[in-house]
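Appendix C: a fully annotated inverse folding record. The material below is reproduced so that readers can follow the format used throughout the book. The structure is listed first as tokens, followed by the designed sequence.
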């Protein structure tokens, strides 16, 4: 944890991946993040593998550096807790559709009436001004709608989803940026604000940065799609014993590569020194790499290409990342002891801060782990907290025999 946001308090009303990924950024930067969950918990808690119910590996990865408050916001007592929370925070974050948020007293107008200075950030599936505003949204349909599945088609032209929840994570990054931008604006103006970061628009923005191409102009100067990226020869190339990424990018790279493979004259023929002309024959150049790559082993290619400073990389499997010498050198996968889940391994924040010492990350909380403490901070006394627990309005986590904690052991 880098304590850059140590004075910021965030009310996190998000679930699954998009919102928790966004608020994890804020927690990793030192903000106090209060994760509000229904008494049954965030559904993502139950995704396996796990050592104990409700503490799945992916949930823990998305929810470190947070506190857990388990409360039913649908009842009057839960609404009172929510109002006290809103009054106490700097940032309110959710990833609900606006109508669902309004039913829970979480519209921007409702939040602003309680806390005019709040930075209010939310990530619906689709922008609220469009005809899809009320449609449910998850990563797969968003990838389909945004063109991601089509642009990732296989050799037969069949669309494929990226095997990662890219729509959620791209929107999550935008949501985190929105929160930080809102805080900067409030620092300058003293005013709160509302920022919307829809999943659909976020992924479209990501993809069309380079792929809008000819349609950038009116009238259009050509089709959409960045030719270098859509070339069927842009791929990991097969070597004699595996695969490799080879990317001569500028003229010097291509000259050096063609010299390495004994085809120097091809550079003159294809006019590779001119970047515009080179872009027009990029498919031929990539095809050339495809033809010569099987002549050497992966290691031989890596040695020769690196000696010439030509961009290249081995094609790692996911498991190879844990053994990668660079990632090991930068301690990308720190081990830690979770107080209830035992020895664990994490993927640290990629950020490095010079001049401020890092603090240890707080492990992902058990459901309701901080309910009692947070309610006490909101000026509920012990008798009131006990009564709320007995009603089922809140859920507390207490220690079981043997020191292992479980959420809700003391519910009435």
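Designed amino acids, in order:
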């Amino acid at each position: 944890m880098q304590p850059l946001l140590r004075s910021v308090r965030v009310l996190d009303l998000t679930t699954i991946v998009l919102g928790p990924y966004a608020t994890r950024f804020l927690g990793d930067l030192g903000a106090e993040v209060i994760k509000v969950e229904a008494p049954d918990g965030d559904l993502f808690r139950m995704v396996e593998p796990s050592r104990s119910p409700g503490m799945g590996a992916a949930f823990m990865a998305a929810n470190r550096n947070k506190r857990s408050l388990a409360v039913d916001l649908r009842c009057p007592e839960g609404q009172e807790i929510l109002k006290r929370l809103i009054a106490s925070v700097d940032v309110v974050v959710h990833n609900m559709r606006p109508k669902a948020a309004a039913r829970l007293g979480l519209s921007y107008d409702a939040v602003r009436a309680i806390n005019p200075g709040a930075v209010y950030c939310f990530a619906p599936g689709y922008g609220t001004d469009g005809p899809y505003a009320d449609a449910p949204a998850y990563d797969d349909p968003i990838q389909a709608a945004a063109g991601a599945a089509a642009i990732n088609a296989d050799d037969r032209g069949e669309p494929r989803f990226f095997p990662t929840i890219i729509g959620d994570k791209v929107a999550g990054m935008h949501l985190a940026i929105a929160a930080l931008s809102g805080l900067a604006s409030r620092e300058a103006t003293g005013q709160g604000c509302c920022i919307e970061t829809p999943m659909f628009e976020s992924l479209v923005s990501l993809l069309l940065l380079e792929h809008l191409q000819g349609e950038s102009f009116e009238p259009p100067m050509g089709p959409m799609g960045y030719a270098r990226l859509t070339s069927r020869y842009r791929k990991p190339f097969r070597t004699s014993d595996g695969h490799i990424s080879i990317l001569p990018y500028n003229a010097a790279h291509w000259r050096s590569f063609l010299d390495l493979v004994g085809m120097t004259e091809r550079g003159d023929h294809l006019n590779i020194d001119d970047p515009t002309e080179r872009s027009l024959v990029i498919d031929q150049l990539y095809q050339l790499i495809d033809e010569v790559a099987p002549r050497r082993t992966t290691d031989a290619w890596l040695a020769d290409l690196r000696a010439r400073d030509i961009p290249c990389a081995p094609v790692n499997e996911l498991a190879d990342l844990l053994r990668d010498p660079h990632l090991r050198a930068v301690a990308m996968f720190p081990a830690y002891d979770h107080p209830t889940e035992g020895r664990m391994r994490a993927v640290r924040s990629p950020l490095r801060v010079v001049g401020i010492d890092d603090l240890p990350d707080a492990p992902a909380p058990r459901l309701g782990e901080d309910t009692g403490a947070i309610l006490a901070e909101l000026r509920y006394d012990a008798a009131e907290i006990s009564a709320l627990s007995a009603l089922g309005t809140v859920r507390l986590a207490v220690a079981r025999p043997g020191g292992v904690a479980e959420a809700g052991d003391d519910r009435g």
